[in-house]
Amino acid sequence: MVVEKNGSLIPLEVKWTEKIGPRDIVSMEIFLKDFSDQVPFGIVLYRGKEILKLREWIFLVPFERFLG
């Protein structure tokens, strides 16, 4: 899913797992590269418990924190 806000694009990807690895974010990395002039960062929602910075511009956010 991609959300547009104030001229920027925010990609959201959903993973139904507690652990995210490099292979799990390949499509997010491609999107960030292709739209680098419009995308400040990407968010991967997952079943984990912590907000984590997986790459320079990719953040893991637990479902409960995002929806809470």
Give a quick rundown of the structure.
The chain is of the alpha/beta class.
Counting DSSP H or I runs of 4 or more residues, the number of helices is: 2
Provide the succession of SSEs: EEHEEEH
Number of DSSP E strands = 5
Biggest beta sheet attributes: 5 strands, mixed
SS class: alpha/beta
Q: Helix coverage percent of residues?
A: 10-25%
Beta-strand percent range? 35-45%
Q: Looking across the biggest beta sheet, what order are the strands in? A: 1-2-3-5-4
Low-confidence stretches: none
**Termini gap:** 19 Å
Cα-atom Rg, whole angstroms? 11 Å
Give structural attributes.
single chain; 68 residues; alpha/beta; five-stranded mixed β-sheet; 37% strand; globular
Written description of the protein model:
The chain has 68 residues and is α/β, with parallel strands linked by helices. It has one domain. Helix content is 21%, strand content 37%. It contains two helices and five strands; from the N terminus they run ββαβββα. The protein has helices at residues 26-34, 63-67; strands at residues 2-5, 8-14, 42-46, 52-55, 58-62. The protein has a five-stranded mixed β-sheet with strand order 1-2-3-5-4. The longest helix has 9 residues, at 26-34. The radius of gyration is 11 Å and the shape is globular. 12% of the residues are buried.
